[in-house]
């Protein structure tokens, strides 16, 4: 696994880098197909934040944590990521057994009014089924996910509904 560690507004000491990388390296034992792990350590307004993004065969698993101490943030984000990895592995197991993965999820967060674009992300869209897209959305802890439908080749959007189910937006001509 390739681990990329970076820091913003914070000095990335060798001890801090080693601590973060040792913690992240344990996921290599649980997931044999992790191609890359991105660790970002941030200091904003006296709050230490740790973000980790794992790339597992094109599936992204992401978690973040904010505390008053950077080491505590790393420990907490590792715990959150561990839960996400267990959820991912559980979904893989249930798909192999042919079980349905239509589990209820929590309500989506309220929309912030008067918003403006403050961040832009770019990522490759790989063809997948709506079920794979819902798993990816859960692993990224997002309310929606854009993907290319493997059967139609069209761009679709899957989203969490307030009732705990999912919605799928398919384009028409």
Report what the structure shows.
The chain is α/β, with parallel strands linked by helices and 173 residues long. The chain folds into two domains: 2-96, 2-Layer Sandwich (Double Stranded RNA Binding Domain), CATH 3.30.160.100; 127-169, Sigma 54 modulation/S30EA ribosomal protein, C-terminal domain (SHC Adaptor Protein), CATH 3.30.505. The chain has four helices and eight strands; from the N terminus they run βααβββαβαβββ. The chain has helices at residues 14-25, 27-30, 70-96, 130-140, and strands at 2-8, 34-44, 47-56, 59-67, 127-128, 144-149, 155-160, 166-169. Strands 1-2-3-4 form a four-stranded mixed β-sheet. Strands 5-6-7-8 form a four-stranded mixed β-sheet, with helices on one face. Strand 6 and strand 7 form a beta hairpin. Helix 1 packs parallel to helix 3. The chain is globular, with a radius of gyration of 18 Å. Mean pLDDT is 82; it is low at 99-112.
